[in-house]
């Protein structure tokens, strides 16, 4: 059955790119509502933004959604991953600014707050997107692919010149509590040269090394406290991929493979899937299929503690 959160959950923080204070409230929603954002800081016009692939607009550093009136919300990927990983299908998310708060740069604070409040089951079956054809997109040496599978699987490979990152590969079946156990506490990361370039261009103004991002400089991890996982970068890329796939309109049943892929490439992949006749279909999940979805059976003890 579909789920929503049991009680409203409030977060306060700053936007990663603007550095502006942000207050966000995730509110329960009815069955078939889906995930929507509302810009609480805008008084007139259409302030509702759907969390769907077709509303995504290219942004080099995050996933940005824009409605038909031009109202946008940025950096939605970590929150979308948390909602998907907890099995939340319906919610209204009110934000008083143009960005989701970055918090610690991972999805763990969202996951812990959502699960602490608990979920409420709704009297409507879950609808999932079943991948039927092998679809891939490539750009600038990067590749993203979706292939048929009876549950969601993510394979990811990254390759960076920085010795502290290097080549990393990881594969996971995203059943049940896997996202919470394996991925949700992995933070966004960047290189020191990227930090300097972004700030010179007025970006990443809310980024604080060791607080909401991991910073690498050649063979060094410059962030205080080091890494949460030896392969934290590839885990975070998988977290991002889950958040971007959550814009499909329902849980995805398929195998996602990312080779140096990012937000834009994953969105282009979804666009190609839905533009290709017979590449995917929406199904009503039976009991066996529902049992294989992310978040089903997740319990409190599986969620990592974060400082």
Shape: globular
How large is the count of helical segments? 7
Name the CATH homologous superfamily of the largest domain: lpxc deacetylase, domain 2
Low-confidence stretches: none
* Computed structural class: alpha+beta
CATH class division of the largest domain = Alpha Beta
Walk me through the structure.
The chain has 307 residues and is of the alpha+beta class. It has 2 domains: 3-121, lpxc deacetylase, domain 1 (Ribosomal Protein S5, domain 2, 2-Layer Sandwich), CATH 3.30.230.20; 127-296, lpxc deacetylase, domain 1 (2-Layer Sandwich), CATH 3.30.1700.10. It is built from 7 helices and 20 strands. It has helices spanning 77-86, 108-117, 178-183, 192-200, 232-245, 263-275, 287-290; strands at 3-5, 9-14, 21-27, 35-39, 48-50, 56-57, 64-66, 72-74, 91-95, 119-121, 127-131, 135-139, 142-147, 152-159, 167-173, 189-191, 214-217, 220-221, 252-259, 280-284. The longest helix is centred in the C-terminal third of the chain and has 14 residues, at 232-245. 45% of the residues are buried. The model has no long low-confidence stretch (mean pLDDT 92).
Task: List strands and helices in order, with pairings.
Layout: E1 3-5, E2 9-14, E3 21-27, E4 35-39, E5 48-50, E6 56-57, E7 64-66, E8 72-74, H1 77-86, E9 91-95, H2 108-117, E10 119-121, E11 127-131, E12 135-139, E13 142-147, E14 152-159, E15 167-173, H3 178-183, E16 189-191, H4 192-200, E17 214-217, E18 220-221, H5 232-245, E19 252-259, H6 263-275, E20 280-284, H7 287-290
Parallel strand pairs: 4-9, 11-19, 14-19, 16-17
Antiparallel strand pairs: 1-10, 2-3, 3-9, 4-5, 6-7, 7-8, 11-20, 12-13, 13-19, 14-15, 17-18
Helix pairs in contact: 1-2, 1-5, 5-6
